[in-house]
Design goal:
TIM Barrel; single chain; globular; 15% strand; alpha/beta; 252 residues
Length: 252
Amino acid sequence: MFAQGLPLEVVVESADPLRGLGRVSLRGLPICQLYAYPAPQRAPDTPAFIKENAIEFGLRITSLIYVFPGRKYRSISTITWIDGLAPPAIRDTRFREIQNVADFARKQGVGAVQGHIGFLPEKSRRAKKIVNLVEKIVDHLAQHGEFLVLETGQESGKTLRRFVEAVGRNNVRVNFDPANFALYGSYVPLQAFEVLGDFVMGFHCKNAVLPGKDARLGTKFCWVRAESISPSTSQSPKPWELRASLRSSGGS
């Protein structure tokens, strides 16, 4: 356990959730995150089915992860235009999709929806439109005591913090993924944690190498040690550095 109140959890794919929940249970883990079913597969009885099986396995699902169709993680420029709420042409459709996932999560007894909001523009005028949309989303969630949890890495830690503060709602949190900062070359992970630590609700643990000169996305792979990569040097700091940062914030 890296930090007090943040036990180790894993992500379960929606393609075969029962098998995934069973594997989590066999490994003795008490909680997990679950990818949301694609819209065509959201049968009315699915939430109750998942909820009953999670209880039977002795698991608590902490968040439902929304994933938009058509994602192509080939290059940073491609992701900039197709991911999250950032693309103007499909922003309203995705706004409704997050609301639908939130309603689906509530029926499963899950208290949070989670995912990338998309590349946040640095200029305040463009960012304001996304802020207004996210305000509507989190107000919808707040009616049912739910949280919106934002993934890190596509923008700098400072940009994401400014965005969360601009939304100004108590039910907006961050899922801290240090490897994503390396994948996108957006920020030094340890510095990002210092900036975002007040809002962190969970962690994703994987490793990554920096993007290449061809602007392709960096490469991710599984990891078992806490380590991060500095976008300025492509060298990994000592593996205990992230642990030490977490510990200094009240972890163990």
